[in-house]
Write a structure and sequence with these properties.
Elements: E1 6-11, H1 15-18, H2 23-42, E2 47-52, H3 66-70, H4 72-75, E3 94-98, H5 109-116, E4 120-126, H6 128-141, E5 145-154, H7 158-168, E6 174-176, H8 178-185
Helix pairs in contact: 2-8
InterPro entries: Isochorismatase-like_dom, Isochorismatase-like_hydrls, Isochorismatase-like_sf
Protein name: Cysteine hydrolase
Keywords: Hydrolase
């Protein structure tokens, strides 16, 4: 597997979003994602962190958007966009801030990817039914080659995660474990 023109997207790994995951599975998830990040660094693959973040008062949130409007008060926190310290960005990593589920919506991700000449996106993140699904759909429409690190994703609903990673997402992306992806880089 070639690493040229590849970027690793690490999405929505914010304590404010991860708070609903019990500690043991969260620690294991972050450990696996950290392994993918380290492999990307070792192989000089750009690591791009995508975080959900809003201005004070969350003026980007429309009252017409039932999901985001219901969470508006949670978003009005200057620390909401912080990345979990276990997988925090290193010098040279890129952080983009989005305004909706897709990593592309309200962010400069597409400009960054063009600047890096990235054609292949490798993705991990929380949640599978949120940022992973939405970003996959939009990235596929933009003609990126896609890989999803299946054990680098999590959803509060295990059945939704299973259906998405075994039936829906494989139609647009290669599905692979973090260990297999790391071994393929060697």
């Amino acid at each position: 597997m070639s690493s040229s023109n590849t970027a690793l997207l690490v999405m929505d790994l914010q304590p404010a979003i991860l708070g609903g995951i019990p500690e043991v599975p969260l620690t294991a998830l972050l450990g696996r994602i950290k392994k993918a990040i380290q492999a990307a660094h070792h192989h000089k693959i750009p690591v791009i962190y995508v975080a959900l973040s809003f201005r004070p008062g969350a003026p980007e949130v429309s009252s017409n958007n039932s999901f985001f409007n219901a969470a508006r008060e949670r978003f009005d926190n200057p620390h909401f966009g912080a990345i979990h310290p276990d997988v925090a960005p290193k010098l040279g990593d890129i952080v983009v801030y989005k305004k909706r589920f897709s990593a592309f919506t309200g962010s400069d991700l597409e400009v960054v990817l063009r600047g890096l000449n990235a054609k292949h996106l490798v993705m991990a993140g929380v949640s599978t039914s949120g940022v992973v699904l939405s970003t996959t759909r939009e990235a596929a429409d933009k003609d990126y080659q896609l890989t999803i690190l299946t054990d680098g994703c999590h959803d509060a609903d295990e059945e939704v995660h299973r259906v998405l990673t075994t039936k829906v997402l494989p139609k647009q992306a290669q599905m692979i474990s973090i260990d297999d992806w790391c071994e393929g880089l060697a």
